[in-house]
Amino acid sequence: MPTTLPTxxxxxxxxxxxxxxxxxxxxxxxxxxxxxxxxEYYTWRTAISKRLIQEKGFRFIAVEGDWPDCFEVNAAIxxxxxxxxxxxxxLQTFNRWPTWMWGNWEIAALVEWMHQHNxxxxxxxxxxxxxLDVYSLWESLQEILHYVEKQGDGAVQAAxxxxxxxxxxxxxxxxxxxxxxxxxxxxxxxxxxxxxxxxQQVASHHPQGLPEREQQFNAEQNALVAVNAERYYxxxxxxxxxxxxxxxxxxxxxxxxxxDLHGPDSKAIIWEHNTHIGDARYTDMPxxxxxxxxxxxxxxxxxxxxxxxxxxxxxxxVVAGKKWGATPEKMTVPEAARGSWEHMLHEQxxxxxxxxxxxxxxxxxALRKPIGHRAIGVVYxxxxxxxxxxxxxxxxxxxxxxxxxxxxxxxxALPTRPDEHTPPDMYPWGE
Length: 431
Hints:
The chain is an alpha/beta fold. Helices cover 43% and strands 13% of the residues. Helix 6 (137-151) packs antiparallel against helix 7.
């Protein structure tokens, strides 16, 4: 006899009312996605985020993107005037593969809305847009150099020393990782010294107001990115979970710093892949010692202070590359594998979209054990999907709610030419 799941209809933004009620007073709301190239994941996350900002006072959106690129967007949307031309032009800052993740028309619409919203708010209350990721080693080093040279103080020497340490590797993180794997010399001490020097500099200044505090935060954050990026690329050669954990721990540290920056009553919205926001302990990730942001946030803040929403679909189209660094393509996402979480929802709902709440799913016997749950990254080969794109998950524990879209469409990517340097591919789903 088929399992009957308690579901709620999802046809318009008004249907999000039960979700807003379930979120309640949570301080951190994590909004996932089952791929980095599906339009509906972005548009529904935008709809939820707008309501969280307008109705519950959430202060910023932090995404699975590089800090310098996202901070450029953050600075632009907090200005009174439109200094960037168009949102599409502003998003050309995302020129590292995969460019479509944040360089797309769906994000352009969000940027425009955030700027219009912010223009109606005092400076201290303007909503931010930040990046949580750790890949931007060279960009962050360059940002630090510009900052310390402008300030003209004691951190200049440490910043130049760190930058010079990486120069022989030609801005290529993979070349650096391979080099330090075979010699004892690396740049760990240099970036650590730079971070300490910047923190001493920040401690000696007392900025007034959020805009000035944010500029100091930006410099220190770029130094933190450099420290953790160096650790990430060094760990990459070791294999296993080491580099994954460096990355997610960095994202969690960045989130905590952002909450501290915005004050004790601030609230955060997180946009990341399901593999980051859904509690790792209820998947097969613990087998190799992997943790993620969803697990770390629950441990740090408690389940009552955070709310994770997973996303998924049955079939449709998606933007992805067939290998790391490849030209992005619009690909067909086949029907979900029989017996999977997505197939179960499709069978029950008959092609309709729905919201599900974990509180109502705990009594479903079929969900007390792991079930295959689709995960598509920036690298995707539909013909091999059944062999590596399903993560065993205890869904009611992994998330607090789930948003299911039966039929999805590919993201609308902007025509941004990618930079020649791409982060190395580390994970089976290209995540």
